[in-house]
Amino acid sequence: MQIELRVLRYDPERDQQPHEATYTVEANPMDRVLDLLHKVKYEQDGTLTFRRSCAHGVCGSDAMLINGRNRLACKIRVDQLKGKRITVAPLPGLPVMKDLVVDMEGFFAKFRSVHPYLQPSGPVPERERLQSAKDRAKFDDTTKCILCAACTTSCPSFWAQPFYVGPAAIVNAHRFIFDSRDDAAEERLEILADRDGVWRCRTVFNCVEACPREIHITQAILEVSRAIVERHA
Amino acid sequence: MIHEHDALIVGAGGAGLWAALELAKAGVDAAVLTKLYPTRSHTGAAQGGVCAALGNQEEDHWEWHMFDTIKGGDYLVDQDAAEVLAREAIETVIELEHMGLPFNRTPDGKIDQRRFGGHTRNYGEGPVMRACFAADRTGHMILQTLYQQCVKLGVKFYDEYHVVDLITEGGELGDGGRCAGVVAYRIADGELVTLRSKAVMMATGGFGRMFRVTSNAWSLTGDGVALAYRHGVPAQDMEFYQFHPTGIVGIGILLSEAARGEGAYLLDNDGFRFMERYAPKLMELAPRDMVSRAITQEIRAGRGINGKDYVYLDVRHLGRKKIDEKLPDITDFVRVYQGLEPYTDPIPIQPTAHYAMGGIPTNLLAQVTRDASNTVVPGLYAAGETACVSVHGANRLGTNSLVDLLVFGRRAGRQMARDVKGVGMPNVADDVTEPIRAELDAIRGRVKGERKEAIRTELADVMMDDAGVYRDAVGLERARAKVAELRERYKNVSVDDKGTVFNTDLLEAREVGYLLDTAQTMVAAAINRKESRGAHSREDFPDRDDVNFLTHSLATQAADGGVDLAYKPVTITKFQPKPRIY
Questions:
Q1: For residues B30 and B68, what is the distance between their CA atoms, to the nearest angstrom?
Q2: Which of A59, B118, B325, B491 could in theory staple to B72 by disulfide, Cβ–Cβ 3.0 to 4.6 A?
């Protein structure tokens, strides 16, 4: 089948403004959008620029806006998009460096701002720390995050207020706040109680829809919000 | 632009990140360069587990792990290295838990363990539960955990800096010279950046992209091995390349051995568990080289599904609960990439190019060595898939890649921290970037030339067809001729993108060059090894030949552009070579 692939392109060395380029590519229904981008790059126009690495949804390089929704290009098939026309644009809300490549520095800075690392107190035991399967389950979902930025850049609160720490950072804070081995929950809750923290979430659920790992992001944000409220109760 | 750090690490997968942590803890000024972002590294794609003889589920001993590793590697493993691997696996896994890695847990709260191919109790009696795991995303958890710790310790990263050359002082690295830093291409704006350093570690992963069907990320193009090779460092044991038995048909995405560890079957067209014909004791949990050969044999005998080039991996009998708890990611892959439902459908699979046993030779301290007497290259280190220490010998056991990068990544960091104390910062000439600038400008400047993509796909086809699971002299000679032809054509490679901003077109052309170097050494070493051992299976020499080939190969660049081969002895300590039966 033939697909009309419309890509929002921008090369700062050549273009004043982003512009749409249209490519016709021969596709198989099981092809992924990443396959189509490769076909363009390798058969039609080598200047088309995008990030990708693992090509099976675990490295998080190729998040982009596909048919109006943030997804990983390597994890969405042509047949799932139903239709002969596919539009591709860079993730919204981040500065575009070139074509589908956005500047991720701000995104990773927000990740770092929530102290996303285990901070246990007490002496280091000889063997592993014990943890029940039940305690581990409390943060299992948020360990799946691959930092692709699909969630944060789908969030209207982030678009409106770029200082908002965003769903991805909260997910990664959640992963430690609810880890029974960690003793720094208070420190992270304090960070997230800030006006650019969890309260900017308006439970629009865009993030949940965007997450390629199917993390229950809004639920994680609500659990963190509840922990903030309850901490001095 | 010139930067300076006491230590540099090229690559931000498990080995590189752990080394960075050791350097940070020792207070050494170190930095990590990666052509991706650290969390995009391919360590994150590892699924099934990381073996360590913790004995949490049943009796286990590091000596058994050591033995399995040696036997799994068809006795080409250096046994002193395997001992280090098996012993230090235990403390590194415990340390990972202390760093926060969310392992699955046993009912009493310990790290959970499961079976994995080739890992046995009591020197081969039967499968043992040794693989520590976090669902089927163990590598993801390792990568995240190590990166989190790097954030905690404030490790300096140069993200999206593509290292394009090594800097030397006092001659080439193969002739006694010292590694003095790297030249990196800053992807954002095309700037060539010089980084001086007392110690440089290569942790750039493998080169599976030289094959048509591979589990490897697009980024795995042999950069580290090729850059060292171009400066005179040998590439060791390059003929040993592992095909993982269970890749998604056509596209090669990995379906973890953990599926078989949890009890999945391999079925032929008659629904028969065909591993009974090849490894009656371990069945589906035989080592990967044997299972990949078994699948290939079944297909050749016409017992592939409907006579086609694949067989079934079947998890249906495991039940939904076990599938969801233990194998969520790989069943998701099946749904997304094959449109099948693993609860009810058997999964079509075929072998996929997966892992390089060979690479940059190192000693037990992760210092790079340059000859058969293991002379150290000053200032250069390597660990993980890009290195060959050699713990995997002729065939790696499942999970041992993660063990390798943890154990030897840690050792590399510690050794670099020791070594940089005693040496001064090397001198680097002002024009050190000029040769590489000229090369890149030549590629960018060609108006009409060879398309890099044509070269890469033709290489991938010939390597898959003639240097894959089975090999013989005729096919390998065909591959040699083809690689030589492609190397000639590559001299005239050109790209569409002539710009400086985020020019992936240019960098991919550079990567094809690395693949050509690694493929050339692989084919040369494979032609010369006239025996079958581990993953190197010669149909014209079907038996292992310990008299002539119980030896590591060392490939170096010849003056005429070809490959010179030398050999170095295998270190044997505890286990004398025996026939390899499972």
A1: 36
A2: B118
- A146–chain B Cβ distance below 8 A for any pair: yes
Map A50-89 to HEC letters: CCCCCCCCCCCCCEEEECCEEEEHHHCEHHHHCCCEEEEE
Q: Which of B288, B396, B480, B529 is catalytic?
A: B288
Mean pLDDT value of segment A121-127: 95
**A183 and A85 share one domain:** no
Does A48 share its domain with A116?
Answer: no
CATH number of the domain where residue A93 is located: 3.10.20.30
The residues in A 54-93 lying below 8 A from B, measured between CB atoms, are 54-61, 75, 77, 79
Task: For residue A137, give every residue at least 6 positions away whose Cβ sits within 8 Å of its Cβ, in sequence order, or none.
Answer: none
For the question of whether the overall pTM of this predicted structure is more than 0.90, the answer is: yes
The structure tokens listed for A129 are: 């720390």
Task: Write down the pLDDT at residue A232.
Answer: 73
Which of A28, A40, A42 has the most B C-beta neighbours within 10 Å, making it the best mutation to test the interface with B?
A42
This model of the complex carries an ipTM of 0.98
**pLDDT for B454:** 97
Number of domains in chain A: 2
Q: Of the candidates A41, A118, A132, which has its C-beta nearest B99's C-beta? A: A118
Q: Which of A53, A120, A133 sits opposite B40 (nearest CB)?
A: A53
Q: What's the CATH number where A110 sits? A: 1.10.1060.10
pLDDT at residue B1, rounded to an integer = 79
Whether residue A141 sits in one domain with residue A51: no
Range of the domain at A110: 105-122+129-231
Residue ranges, chain B, pLDDT below 70: none
Q: Both A54 and A133 in a single domain?
A: no
Q: Is the pLDDT of residue A181 over 70?
A: yes
Which residue is closest to B94 within chain A, CA to CA? A128
